[in-house]
Specification:
By secondary structure, the protein is an alpha/beta fold. The protein has 13 helices and seven strands. It binds thiamine diphosphate. Thiamine diphosphate binds next to strand 2 and strand 4.
């Protein structure tokens, strides 16, 4: 594969007539609006973590075209097996902000009652299965879900994200081989954002790309410009149609760049140059989509300013409201997992609560 990654958007924001209809004007505006929110959240949640009000955050700044392009190409009932950096999928599916913030804070309104780290989302109603910390576990899940979907003829398609570092995990091979052999209705998207924490993509494979692996699994594979929303949507639409028709899975390698740090526990200046960051900044996916919107006669500066002001206000107010909810009741640690609590677990619960009652240092409310 010596060709450059598949691209649609021109430097001036133009696109050929043949591809203009990939997204409607409304969908372009919805995506820009959600990207504005995504960037506000990236900035504000990072600040919150620095202030000690949030345990952890991971930004997706720079990777939005890949994330939104995938989300915009799926049907609402298609499960998205997230890696962890795909907040944009939640925003595209319009999961209410309080539900997202309650998860991040881990308060009593969190659907999982604070049992997961921040960003380990799980929204059954929106077909978002739980994020898990060990990287790559989502890939076999998506292969299995897609296999079941094909057997049952539901027409649903399972989508899994991973980073290029995760593509070096055994789970990647297991999932793609299984998906190929059993013609699973699934799509695997590698966000190749240049780094797995500090490890550069150049040491993940000796092959010319990760997309070429598709051939070895006997499935379709594409390398796409991951900062070009329309290009991502184009390959995704084809992949989804193929999967839904029971014609097998697809591997998509989206070439993009993580503009921020890996997480709130990382400092990228230790392993990459400012020149490299500046070069990718010129390919900013939000700016490229904005140029395309202007080319269509949409989304002027006024619309952008209104979106920014509106979201800033809502985010601040919603965060303040969510921070007011107390932590989950301590007894919930022992609830909701087993239908019948065993005598051993009951004894452990009673001993734990008695211990807490005796403790003079805890400020946890104990029943
Ligand atoms: C099995 C496993 N090994 C190591 C880690 C620690 N870890 C968390 S994220 C990460 C980097 C993953 O990089 P990549 O797949 O490229 O995704 P990105 O963070 O760039 O989006 C690592 C090594 C982990 N969570 N699970």
């Amino acid at each position: 594969m010596t060709q450059p990654p598949f691209q649609i958007l021109g430097e001036d924001g133009s696109c050929p007539d043949s591809h203009r209809g990939l997204l409607s004007d409304d969908q372009i505006e919805k995506t820009l609006d959600a990207m504005v929110l995504n960037r506000i959240l990236d900035r504000r949640l990072l600040m919150l973590q620095r202030q000690g009000r949030l345990g952890f955050w991971m930004t997706s700044h720079g990777e939005e075209a890949t994330i939104f392009g995938v989300a915009a190409s799926l049907e609402p009932e298609d499960p998205i097996f997230l890696s962890y950096r795909e907040l944009g999928c939640l925003l595209w599916r319009e999961i209410p902000l309080p539900l997202i913030f309650n998860q991040l804070i881990g308060n009593s309104r969190d659907l999982c009652l604070g049992r997961q780290m921040p960003i380990h989302y799980c929204y059954r109603e929106w077909s978002i299965p739980s994020v898990s910390s060990p990287v790559g576990t989502q890939l076999p899940h998506a292969a299995g879900f897609g296999y079941a979907a094909r057997l049952r003829g539901t027409g649903r398609v399972a989508l899994a994200f991973c980073g290029e570092g995760t593509a070096s995990e055994g789970d990647f091979h297991t999932a793609l081989n299984f998906a190929g052999v059993f013609s699973s209705s699934s799509i695997f998207v590698i966000r190749n954002n240049g780094y797995a924490i500090s490890t550069p993509e150049s040491v993940q494979t000796a092959a010319e790309s990760l997309a070429v692996r598709a051939e070895g699994y006997g499935i379709a594979g594409y390398q796409v410009d991951g900062n070009d929303l329309l290009a991502v949507v184009n390959v995704m639409r084809e992949a989804r149609a193929r999967a839904a028709a029971g014609e097998g899975p697809t591997l998509i390698e989206a070439m993009t760049y993580r503009m921020g740090a890996h997480s709130t526990a990382d400092d990228p200046s230790a392993y990459r140059t400012e020149e490299e960051e500046a070069a990718w900044n010129r390919l900013d996916p939000y700016e490229r989509l904005k140029r395309h919107a202007r080319w269509r006669g949409l989304w002027d500066e006024e619309a952008e300013a209104a979106a920014q002001a509106g979201w800033e206000e809502r985010v601040v107010a919603t965060l303040a409201e969510c921070e007011r909810h107390p932590p989950p009741r301590v007894e919930t640690l022992f609830e909701g997992v087993l239908e019948t609590v065993s005598p051993q677990l009951e004894a452990q619960r009673d001993a734990y609560l008695a211990d807490l009652r005796r403790s003079s240092t805890t400020d946890i409310e104990v029943p």
